[in-house]
């Protein structure tokens, strides 16, 4: 009954590390070296793996993987052999993809495969209700992809903007740019716990209407966050640097927006009644809202890379490029809100007409 709240709480808890890591690694990089920062990040990843393995004891009641059958199954090589091959091949493949700029082709192939899997799942659906549920998930995934293409500016164009145009001095200490990444996660955790506690899943009304209402709110908050960043960039253009509180506010609003997108979409994926497809749909969702959205985010961030050299040879970055990109994202997210609100209105009217028909 409170599935959305549960996913919000899980999403919030998953951001604990996202708060600590930028602060610790950012401090290590700023005070010592990049190598120290990356080394500390590796320690954190090992700690996460240990916690994961230790936590398996809480899931002994679940079926899980049939380890005996898995160990007994060999395909050309034993299991440890394939693990070794993957450990060597994965970094080599990723290096080639970026070196040869083949990543876009890999994404195209993965997307085609994903669409093929979706078509197979659609044929597997037994009734119209299941097909509608699948259609809803696909549409939510599309808007999630657009949302994350905007949100992932946090690790690229926004971070560079903070580094170049935001006054980061606080009580005599210059805050490392990397530490700003924790603001988003802190907002997610704080607001996520609050939403999971306060928001009750109403039995009355139509769930699809509520889903689209939450998506409209999430995209609207993303637009508001970038509107604040646009104001910050215009402030930088006028006075040379923008204020730190304005930057914190914009990032916090964008973090709050996440709680109305991913938890809602993941909750809907777990509700689908087609047997055996939850894991596959989750993977497709991560492909589109993760990999493809990150690629699109890179394309958007590339528009801020305008720079020139002065007479001494020093590089000057153009604040106008950031103003333009942040402004375009503001209006782009607002356009998405308009489309989602149209879907919400259609679903609300359809539900209302159905309810009136039943009453009469």
UniProtKB/TrEMBL annotation:
A Gene Ontology molecular-function term? peptide transmembrane transporter activity
Keywords annotated in UniProt = Cell membrane, Membrane, Peptide transport, Protein transport, Transmembrane, Transmembrane helix, Transport
Q: Which InterPro entries match?
A: Dipep/tripep_permease, MFS_trans_sf, MFS_Transporters, POT_fam, PTR2_symporter_CS
An example GO biological process term is: protein transport
Q: Where in the cell is it found?
A: Cell membrane; Membrane
List the membrane topology term(s).
Answer: Multi-pass membrane protein
List the record's Gene Ontology CC terms alphabetically.
Answer: plasma membrane
Q: Which PROSITE patterns match?
A: PTR2_2
Q: Which Gene3D superfamilies match?
A: MFS general substrate transporter like domains
Q: Which Pfam families match?
A: PTR2
- Which family does the UniProt entry place this protein in? Belongs to the major facilitator superfamily. Proton-dependent oligopeptide transporter (POT/PTR) (TC 2.A.17) family.
Could you identify this protein by its name? Dipeptide permease DtpD
Name the source organism: Escherichia coli
């Amino acid at each position: 009954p409170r599935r959305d709240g549960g996913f919000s709480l899980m999403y919030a808890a998953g951001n604990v590390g996202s708060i600590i890591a930028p602060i610790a690694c950012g401090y290590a990089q700023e005070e010592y070296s990049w190598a120290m920062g990356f080394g500390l990040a590796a320690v954190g990843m090992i700690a996460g793996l240990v916690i994961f393995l230790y936590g398996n004891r809480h899931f002994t009641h679940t079926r899980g993987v049939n380890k005996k059958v898995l160990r007994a199954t060999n395909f050309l090589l034993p299991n440890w052999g394939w693990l070794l091959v993957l450990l060597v091949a994965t970094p080599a493949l990723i290096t080639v993809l970026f070196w040869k700029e083949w990543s876009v082709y890999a994404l195209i192939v993965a997307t085609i495969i994903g669409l093929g899997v979706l078509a197979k799942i659609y044929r597997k659906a037994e009734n119209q209700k299941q097909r509608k549920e699948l259609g809803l998930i696909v549409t939510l995934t599309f808007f999630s992809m657009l949302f994350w293409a905007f949100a992932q500016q946090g690790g690229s164009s926004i971070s560079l903007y903070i580094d170049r145009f935001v006054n980061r001095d606080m009580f005599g200490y210059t805050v490392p740019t990397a530490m700003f990444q924790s603001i988003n996660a802190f907002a997610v955790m704080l607001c996520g716990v609050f939403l999971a506690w306060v928001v009750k899943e109403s039995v009355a009304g139509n769930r699809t209407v509520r889903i689209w209402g939450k998506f409209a709110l999430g995209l609207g908050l993303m637009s508001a966050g970038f509107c604040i960043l646009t104001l910050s960039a215009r402030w930088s253009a006028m006075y040379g640097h923008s204020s730190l509180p304005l930057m914190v506010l914009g990032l916090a609003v964008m973090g709050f927006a996440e709680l109305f997108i991913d938890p809602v979409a993941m909750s809907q994926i777990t509700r689908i009644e087609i047997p055996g497809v939850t894991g596959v749909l989750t993977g497709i969702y991560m492909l589109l809202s993760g990999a493809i959205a990150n690629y699109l985010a890179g394309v958007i961030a590339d528009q801020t890379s305008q720079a020139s050299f002065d007479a001494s040879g020093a590089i000057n970055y153009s604040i106008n490029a950031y103003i333009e990109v942040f402004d375009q994202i503001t209006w782009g997210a607002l356009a998405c809100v308009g489309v989602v609100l149209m879907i919400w209105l259609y679903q609300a009217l359809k539900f209302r007409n159905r309810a009136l028909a039943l009453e009469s």
